[in-house]
Amino acid sequence: MVISTEEELAKLKDIGRICGLAMQSMADAMEPGMTTLEMDMIGRKVLEDNGAQSAPEFCYQFPGATCISVNEEVAHGIPGARIIKAGDLVNIDVSAVKDGFFGDTGSSFAVPPVRRDIERLCRDGKRAMWTGLQQIKSGRPLADIGNAIGAFAKKNRYTLITNLASHGIGRSLHEEPTELATWPDKDETRIMTEGMVFTVEPFLSMGAYWAEDGDDDPWTLFSDPSAPTVQFEHTVVATKNGPLILTLSE
């Protein structure tokens, strides 16, 4: 989507704020002994209380309001009876729709007590996302995002999942620009235009390069080779002054 009116921007800011609020509410409530379904119910209530609807349910009939992925799960984990335990690495991904406009955000959290390497991974996963966000400016190549994140990962001895891409968003959950790489991609030649709306969501890993389907359900994806992996995501608008981040909870 490319924003053309102030009304469109206002509605995107509204749904973005709601997504950020839902994710943060889930993270603040998370503690050992909770099930992922209990966490999901917290997110669902925030969405519904603010007049929004789960995008995975709305678009794909996903069996949950949010995606909650634990440890070996990289993405699209189904909320259910799984119990959160001390030391778990948990990713919360919230996308929603309101008034015909979509937002999408995600973060990874480690449940204390936390191993030092996992604590560093979470810190650097967020840094990788911000490294990508800092490349955003209308008129610049989209490839700058993946190149910068790739350089950060290499310098800090991480790998990147290279089959889970960022994407355009706005009037639908996934739209142009499609398949926006958060890793170096020599075939990426598109340019950021003023008002372009998309996500930035690198998957930083301690050894995995790919997300693979599992055997138990058609949704959950697992790291390959198996390794701790984090994801951090914001929905943004490209402007001449840099990125306008839509999914902050404040």
UniProtKB/TrEMBL annotation:
GO terms for biological process: proteolysis. CDD domains: MetAP1 (cd01086). Its cofactor is Co(2+); Zn(2+); Mn(2+); Fe(2+). Its EC number is 3.4.11.18. One of its GO terms (molecular function) is metalloaminopeptidase activity. Keywords: Aminopeptidase, Hydrolase, Metal-binding, Protease. It is an enzyme of class 3 (hydrolase). A divalent metal cation 2 binds at D104, H167, E201, E233. It catalyses: Release of N-terminal amino acids, preferentially methionine, from peptides and arylamides. Substrate binds at H76, H174. Binds 2 divalent metal cations per subunit. Has a high-affinity and a low affinity metal-binding site. The true nature of the physiological cofactor is under debate. The enzyme is active with cobalt, zinc, manganese or divalent iron ions. Most likely, methionine aminopeptidases function as mononuclear Fe(2+)-metalloproteases under physiological conditions, and the catalytically relevant metal-binding site has been assigned to the histidine-containing high-affinity site. Transmembrane segments: none annotated. A divalent metal cation 1 binds at D93, D104, E233. It comes from the Bacteria. Residues 11-240 form the Peptidase M24 domain. Removes the N-terminal methionine from nascent proteins. The N-terminal methionine is often cleaved when the second residue in the primary sequence is small and uncharged (Met-Ala-, Cys, Gly, Pro, Ser, Thr, or Val). Requires deformylation of the N(alpha)-formylated initiator methionine before it can be hydrolyzed. HAMAP family: MetAP_1 (MF_01974). PANTHER family: METHIONINE AMINOPEPTIDASE (PTHR43330), METHIONINE AMINOPEPTIDASE 2 (PTHR43330:SF13). Belongs to the peptidase M24A family. Methionine aminopeptidase type 1 subfamily. This is Methionine aminopeptidase. The lineage of its organism: Bacteria, Pseudomonadati, Pseudomonadota, Alphaproteobacteria, Hyphomicrobiales. The gene is map.
